[in-house]
Amino acid sequence: MKGRPGSGADIGTPGRTRDILRRHGFTVRKSLGQNFLTDGNILGKIVDAADLDKTKGVLEIGPGLGALTERLAEAAGRVAAIEIDGRLLPILREALAPYPNVELVHADVLKTDLHGLWERVFAGCSEVSVAANLPYYITTPILMKLLEERLPFRHIVVMVQKEVAERLAASPGGKDYGSLSVAVQYYCEPEFVCAVPAGVFIPAPQVDSAVIRLTRRADPPVRVTDERRLFRVVHAAFAQRRKTLANNLSALAGRDRKGELEDLLRRIGIDPGRRGETLSLAEFAALSEALGSAGLLPLPVG
Question: Which CATH class is domain 8-216?
Answer without folding.
Answer: alpha beta
